[in-house]
Write a structure and sequence with these properties.
- By secondary structure, the chain is mainly alpha-helical.
- The protein has one domain.
- The chain is about 70% helix and about 5% strand.
- It contains 9 helices and 4 strands; from the N terminus they run ββααααααββααα.
- Strands 1-2 form a two-stranded antiparallel sheet.
- Helix 1 runs parallel beside helix 9, helix 3 runs antiparallel to helix 4 and helix 8 runs antiparallel to helix 9.
- The longest helix is centred in the last third of the chain and has 32 residues.
- The N terminus is likely disordered.
Length: about 290
């Protein structure tokens, strides 16, 4: 990023976003494609197979987040979300009903566990707030992703999951690729993500949802397109949010080499946070 002055004060400078770097952008698009294919393909199989695929994505999210951000109190930050991923997946995959209430219970228990884990640290607990925030962000993300398991177990669920995952994945991939072609205007002065990419991704998600095989009534196509756009938007905004976070770190930290796994974090978090929107999408459109 280049630096340009934006205020009369001679000391006030902020980095201006350049064009998105081709390699990280391509890696992010490739990661979104692979993750979407994994969830989309496993949705055709049994609920157990789909739950295992969700668990793989959850584990990848926790691992990449910790490797990229390297939070203080790494063991505590990784252990609680890891346990929450296993517990929420197991409860939603093998529970007696298809309610998502167990996921909410896991989040509540994880909140208590996070407090206990941070208090148990023997390093003086530096950056306690940041460590607590990272832990709970991961807990909410993995539990959110697990809600797709509940949707998969319902009548007609596999086709609905395919529509939801496809809309989110299409939005992520198209938004990233569009950034390379139309990087201007950016969504923010300091963030190298194009507004045209966000719009293209939302339209891609809407189109995929509107043409989903899960649709049985053509009259629901406009509503499905709107819902698909919402799912895609949720995924894209989470992905763009990671770009905002990276830009913010560059404002307060000295420039340093970017971790090679950082491009994977946006698509992982995007799919996770799009899952609850997909769950509502499925209930409203295909229930």
């Amino acid at each position: 990023m280049s630096k340009e002055r934006i205020a009369d004060d001679e000391t006030t400078v902020i980095p201006r976003a350049e064009r998105p770097l081709p390699v990280p952008t391509a890696l992010a698009a490739a990661a979104a494609t692979v993750l979407t294919a994994l969830l989309y393909g496993s949705a055709l199989a049994s609920s157990t197979v789909f739950a295992l695929a969700v668990l793989v994505v959850q584990g990848g999210l926790v691992a990449v987040w910790c490797l990229v951000s390297r939070p203080v109190g790494l063991v505590a930050v990784a252990a609680v979300p890891g346990a929450a991923a296993i517990l929420s997946t197991g409860l939603l995959a093998f529970g007696s009903d298809t309610s998502v209430a167990p996921a909410a219970a896991v989040i509540a228990l994880s909140f208590i566990a996070t407090i206990a884990a941070q208090l148990a640290r023997r390093d003086g607990r530096p950056q306690l707030t940041a460590a607590f925030g990272s832990t709970m962000t991961l807990v909410v993300a993995v539990c959110a992703l697990a809600t797709m398991i509940s949707l998969h177990r319902q009548i007609g669920g596999p086709a609905v999951v395919e529509a939801c995952v496809g809309a989110a994945g299409a939005g992520l991939v198209v938004a990233r690729l569009a950034d390379l072609l139309l990087p201007r205007p950016t969504v923010n002065y300091a963030v190298p993500r194009g507004a045209a990419g966000v719009l293209a991704g939302v339209l891609a998600g809407a189109g995929l949802a509107a043409t989903s095989p899960a649709l049985t009534d053509p009259m629901t196509m406009p509503v499905a397109a709107l819902a698909g756009a919402g799912v895609a938007l949720a995924a894209i905004l989470a992905d763009v949010g990671m770009s905002f976070a990276a830009a913010g770190r560059e404002l307060i930290e000295a420039p340093r080499p970017q971790p090679p796994l950082r491009p994977l974090l946006g698509p992982l978090l995007g799919l996770a946070l799009a899952a609850p929107a997909g769950y509502v999408f499925g209930l409203l459109i295909f229930a």
